[in-house]
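Milestone M4 deliverable, item 7.
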Amino acid sequence: MRFNEAGPAVDVEWTLVSAKAPCIICSGENGCRRGFGNEFACCTQVASEWPLSSGGWVHRVCRHSRVRAIKDARGDDTSRATTVAS
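Output delivered:
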């Protein structure tokens, strides 16, 4: 059996969501954050397997989620886009 050792904490620059760039997970306009080049989201409304001690939960964001967020911001139809929230 192989065990992973805990590594040093990584300090991440999170970007707060806004009306122009809402949360990719819950579509909220405040409280949530994006990080790691928009590959991850910290949502304060939708739980995942990865809670943060600072509040919220980390979600891995797939390409389809980013496409959905862009279409939502433009008001395009998103019925065919899918989202992976965790």
